[in-house]
């Protein structure tokens, strides 16, 4: 097994759950994102069973993969949702998600977005600044409501991840400073439009060590105690998301160790637990299927030029991220070292570097672990329509999003000369 439910048959072809990837390429074309329904469900249930003792509200981070079928599947499993925009809230609702299980994160929420979330009676606003607190209060008063809030605390711990996805350091834009938190909670508790509910942190993404979580939790819990002594009793603690996945050779702390560490820390505090996992629910549940257009031997490098580019999967370009790449049909013979690169006119347009592959022009490649921050970060750069998306469910493949056509790309433009 290469990633969960992805196997190679004895004839050398890759099969995802019960569907051959070559058949998906024939039916739907390439590039195509393909997801495994079983993997998404198993990843979600892994949280539920490890955290069975604390029964957390698991708010899936919509930004990781916001495709309606993915959201609908998770909603049917009982998930809540962590959103960062009105658009994500509308997606959750369109997918049949329960707004009362939605938490709203983000550093620069617009007034209309706050009003919309309030009108849907979401579970909680994760407030990230004093200015935002005032804004939420005003909008709630105008609506005749009290907005449930938690402050996102910046605990100033190093999540030991890529600088672009580290969010819990003083130098990051996220959250309110630990030192300022008590003052802000006192202020919030005095506001007519605010109901103080909880405390939150999210220290980063693709975290592979448990210790930053424990450090952050301890800093939050010291605040919980401090506030309690001042008569402010919080109802929930939200540990954020960030649990990493294995892209290459990362060793991950186990889900049980994670649950035990969190539950040990919060024991005795009488707090409901919230989690905001994204990547660890969908990351290894998806791949990007792409076709080799040309093989181009170079003086210093050999290139496999494929039909997926940085506009389809930007993680390698953006974070130097590693994705495993494997041929859909395993061929015999000596491998060649290739850089797998896309058709986009940027030298940064690469998907994988220095991979040993046996390839012929027209072969299919699977770029693995592309289920999170793949399609949600795709763009139309170079006027390329975004890929279609397919969900495999045992031996069936369902088209869950059509490939974008040229007409879609120009639909909102006006020619003025
Ligand atoms: C506030 C918040 N919660 C949750 C997540 C999900 O993180 P991950 O996909 O690493 O689990 C993010 C992602 O950056 C986030 O910003």
Topology:
Blueprint lengths: L5 E3 L5 E3 L2 E2 H8 L3 E5 H14 L6 E5 L6 H9 L3 E4 L2 H9 L7 E3 L6 H9 L4 E4 L2 H13 L4 E8 L21 E2 L3 H9 L4 E7 L10 H19 L6 E3 L16 H12 L5 E4 L3 H4 L3 E12 L4 E5 L8 H5 L5 E3 L8 E6 L8 E8 L6 E4 L20 E6 L2 E6 L4 H5 L7
Bound molecules: pyridoxal-5'-phosphate.
Pyridoxal-5'-phosphate binds next to helix 10.
SS field, number of helical segments = 12
Radius of gyration: 23 Å
| Tally of individual domains | 2
CATH superfamily of the largest domain: Alanine racemase
Would you give an account of this structure?
This protein is α/β, with parallel strands linked by helices. The protein folds into 2 domains: 6-36 and 283-410, Beta Barrel (Lyase, Ornithine Decarboxylase, Chain A, domain 1); 105-277, TIM Barrel, CATH 3.20.20.10. It contains 12 helices and 21 strands. It has helices spanning 21-28, 37-50, 68-76, 86-94, 111-119, 130-142, 181-189, 211-229, 255-266, 279-282, 315-319, 406-410; strands at residues 6-8, 14-16, 19-20, 32-36, 57-61, 80-83, 102-104, 124-127, 147-154, 176-177, 194-200, 236-238, 272-275, 286-297, 302-306, 325-327, 336-341, 350-357, 364-367, 388-393, 396-401. The strands form 3 sheets. Strands 4, 14, 15, 16, 17, 18, 19, 20 and 21 form a 9-stranded mixed sheet that branches. It starts with 5 loop residues before the first strand and ends in a 7-residue tail after the last helix. The mean pLDDT is 96.
Quick tags:
alpha/beta, 417 residues, binds pyridoxal-5'-phosphate, single chain, 12 helices, Lyase, Ornithine Decarboxylase, Chain A, domain 1, TIM Barrel, globular, eight-stranded parallel beta barrel
């Amino acid at each position: 097994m290469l990633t969960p439910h992805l196997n190679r048959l004895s004839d050398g072809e890759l099969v995802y759950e019960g569907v051959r990837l070559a058949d998906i390429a024939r039916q739907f074309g390439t590039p195509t994102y393909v997801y495994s329904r079983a993997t998404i469900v198993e990843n979600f249930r892994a949280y539920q069973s490890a955290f069975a003792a604390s029964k957390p509200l698991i708010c899936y981070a919509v930004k990781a993969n916001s495709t309606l079928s993915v959201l609908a599947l998770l909603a049917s499993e009982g998930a809540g949702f962590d959103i960062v925009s009105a658009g994500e809230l509308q997606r959750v609702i369109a997918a049949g998600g329960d707004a009362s299980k939605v938490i709203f994160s983000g550093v620069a929420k617009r007034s209309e977005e706050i009003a919309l979330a309030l009108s849907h009676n979401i579970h909680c606003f994760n407030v990230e600044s004093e200015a935002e607190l005032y804004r939420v209060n005003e909008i709630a008063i105008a609506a005749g409501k009290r907005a449930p809030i938690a402050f996102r605390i910046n605990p100033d711990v190093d999540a030991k991840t890529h600088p672009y996805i580290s969010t819990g350091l003083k130098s990051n834009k996220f959250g309110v400073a630990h030192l300022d938190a008590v003052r802000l909670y006192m202020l919030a508790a005095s506001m007519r439009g605010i109901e103080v509910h909880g405390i939150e942190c999210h220290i980063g993404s693709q975290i592979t060590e448990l210790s930053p979580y424990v450090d952050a939790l301890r800093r939050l819990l010291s605040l919980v105690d401090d506030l309690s002594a001042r008569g402010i009793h919080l109802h929930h603690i939200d540990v954020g998301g960030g649990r990493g996945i294995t892209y290459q050779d990362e060793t991950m702390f186990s889900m049980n160790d994670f649950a035990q560490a969190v539950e040990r820390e919060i024991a005795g505090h009488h707090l409901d637990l919230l989690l905001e996992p994204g990547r660890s629910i969908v990351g290894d549940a998806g791949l990007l299927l792409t076709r080799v257009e040309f093989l181009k031997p170079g003086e210093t490098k050999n290139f496999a030029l494929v039909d997926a580019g940085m506009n389809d999967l930007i993680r390698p370009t953006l974070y130097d991220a590693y994705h495993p790449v494997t041929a859909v049909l395993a061929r015999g013979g000596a491998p060649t070292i290739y850089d797998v690169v896309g058709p986009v006119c940027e030298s940064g347009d690469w998907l994988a570097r220095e991979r040993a592959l046996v390839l012929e022009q027209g072969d299919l490649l699977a770029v693995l672990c592309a289920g999170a921050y793949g399609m949600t970060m795709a763009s139309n750069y170079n006027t390329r329509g975004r890929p279609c998306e397919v969900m495999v469910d045992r031996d069936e493949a369902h088209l869950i999003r059509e490939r974008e056509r040229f007409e879609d790309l120009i639909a909102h433009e006006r020619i003025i000369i």
